[in-house]
Amino acid sequence: MKRRTMRCLLVLALLAGCGKGQTGSGVNGGGDDHPGAGGDAGAGAGQVDACMVAIPFQPSGELVADPSKTIQITASVKNARGVLAYQWTVLFRGAAVASTRVLGDGATIEVPIPVAGVYTARVQVSGTTQPCPEASATINVRAPNANIRSFALRLVPPSSAGRPVQVQVQNIYGGGASDLGILLLSAGSTFHATVTSDTGGVPAYLRFTSGGTLAAINEAFVDATGAVDGRLPPQSPHTVMIVPSSSEFVPRRIDDWLPGASLVVDRGVSVTGTVRGPGGAGLEGASVAISASDLPSTVAVTAADGGFALRAESTAGAALATVEVAPPGGSGLPRLAAAVAPSAVLAIGYAPGLTVTDLAGVVVQRRGAPLPGARVTVVGALAAAGTVTGGAAVTATGAVRVTATADGAGVLPRLRVPAAALTAVIEAAPGDLALVALDTRGGIPAVIEAAAPRRVTTAILDEDGGALPGAVVDLVPGGALADAGIPARRVTAGPGGAIEVDLPATGRYELRFQDPRVRSAPLIVAEGAVANIAPSYRLPATILVSGSVLDGLSPVVGVAVQVLCIESCSAQDRARPMLEAVSDATGRFTLALPDPGTRPGTR
Amino acid sequence: MRVAAAGLLLTGCFYIDPIVAPPEVEIVNTTPVMERDGQVTLKARFTNRDEQVGTFHWELFACADYAGGVGDNCEAVPWAMRDVQEFTADVPAQTHAGGPLAAAAWIRLEARDGIGARATDKRYYELLDAPPTLEVKPGAALGARPVGGPIDLFARYSDPDSPVEDVALTWTAVPPTTAQAVTWETPSAPTSDGATPPHATVSRRLIPGEPGPWQIDVIATSHGKTAQTSVSLDVQPNQPPCLVLWQPSVPPAGATLPISAPTLFEILWVDDDVDAYPPLQGATQYGTARFAWSILRPDVPGRRVLDGATGNQLELDPALFTPGEVIELRVEVFDPQHDAALPCDDSEPTCALPQACHDPRQLPRQRQTWRVEIR
Question: B210 to chain A, minimum CA–CA distance in Å?
Fold first, then answer.
């Protein structure tokens, strides 16, 4: 018994010894096994660097789609220890793409790139001693022999962003979607300036144009102190147009302006003259304005004797100045315009043979039934409506635009118009337009017969002929309709992409198609006759171009991203956005651009 | 010596060879109906006269046939087995993966008492048709779910012992007020996700016509068996569209915007829950705001609405007006739920409806006016 007891005691001592060894501080304690975590374990070393994951890929240059090629994507992890495991997701057009592990641990994968477009790779690293953020990368794969087309992207931020409007040029590759990555919304440069004259501050409107032909336009309104603070995009110098609120000072344009330079306005030069009517007498109440190099003068209204005085920017160096005269309301005279050599004195006269007739009492009707309340705008162009003399006499063209509304019996009130070959644009009711030739040289008609509008049907289709319900077309009037100030009409396609609209049979329209649902790219059909509107229109193929707007590190919400054409387009089209998007809560935007395509036979 | 004798007597007096009664065990089924792919709970009723603790071993086998109370063609490998007194197990739908439907479950129970005496029981239970399975979830929403906006519902269903094509779904939406008409879109075609047993998923789009609590009931029916689930959704009132971003700049009070060339006036961003501009993507229900442009001229009474100008932009040509003239160009924004005239005086350059914008950070504004000077 006693011997057994001793054996037991020895075993217990051994066990106690082992247990003490396992709990020793040298094994489980602070920094020995996990030096990276030593700080965390309270060894007093300070903060631990956060885990960082980057995703470089090879090859790193331009990637071209090829069924036989692959790219290698690697998760590059810093500041993380442990037995790392990698969970990869690679997406293309929203669907998962199969990948192959290159190394056993999965840090590098191989992905085929048979089709052009945007591949998105995401990796989640686990098994680390501290959590690692999910990392992602977008990889653009070009189509073989992709065409390249440049577009300007105008970024218009909300005022809350405190950033100026700015323009960036982007090259877009055809044949597949692409991601532009980060569009940095520059803070630009701040400026403080004061609009001054010889008497002090001057209230004015300022228009800054930066970047030359790729215009980023920023504006400011200056109060009576003349002081203004703002931000301008980094492209400099800038062009500033100053339009003083007071007619005492003339508008001025300053080219190559740098922030900090002065904004001084003056009274310009005086331009005086007389406007005479067809009979030679002074014409009271006409408005006269001059513009040179797109810079307007002040506006003068003629006195009883037809005399006027206005002020304009010194036109020294300008080849021509455009003189415009708007006749007094109700006179029936056309608006005059002429390009003349700059002169301090102008003699403006309506052509002596120009006569005016009155359409009062004319009945506006359709198929014998009067059109009560019809709005009639008479328009027309006169090749030689007058002369402007500022040295040499120059023939002034005339533009007619007068409007009256028929009464309840369809009878026009007083409506004086020149005796000329004109056109009556009749708005019988909202959306009901008619064009009627109106030649008043031989007298006035008793009736103006407004033809019924023509029901026009067409369809908006995609490049493959599929219907695009929800696509829109803006019918932009041309010719007489534009002269009458008829606004563009927007029509939305219904089921089947069908468009049905009533248009004046002899009207002319430019058709601007776009697809708000980003299925197809915009299409502009040049101005043409209503009769020539086709049964359908196929919008061009589109590629989706995405990006993110950041102001450094943070996404910027609500930035309008406008696409401006800069290649193979008219000056008018350059100024008008082709399409636009707005950055969302994550700063992301998506545009459906016309596909530049690939060189023939290689798509 | 006496002590030794007493010990012998004690051991002799108290030594009695025990009579060990064999234990008995009976399977007690507490599951009223056994359905394929369901669950069964069985208890072991153990009778042990010596009140010794018993151990129990259960085995459940799937049988392909059942007739006259007896299963046949049963699997050799048990589907489930456990060593507990109360046995709960999943009921198989098939005898084995890819095999025929299980027609019966064969239960074997073996009990032993503390000294190893053994008792057994076995039973056959007929397996009945399993009901379909059904899970319904709403799709993710961009914030609140507004009136007029699409609500996508996804139903994932299956039938453990029948083809998934045999399952029919019935959708019922219960609006807050019973008078409200319910607008459903046609369900999508089912898609399979490759699970075992095969599952199918369909989506269906609901367009709620009024705010408040909605309940969507979905019933899956297959071979007379049903499964039902309900989803509750809170639909918010549709928010009015709000003008957020435009160009050119609006002049401050008392000032004018001078133009001397054709100028494009644009609304670049309208914030709205359903009819935003640019339009939201992802559903045909997402429309776009409607704009109304109008001009007030100093010598013409009344503001003239520009017929047909319903898009987000308008080009103003100064050549249509008299130099020096100051006109007011106005734009107002509407959506199908907020289509009435704005409740502000015509003289007010801006106007805001009392409701907040979809994005609460935006200031409500449904009217914007530029004072434009023709130069």
Answer: 24
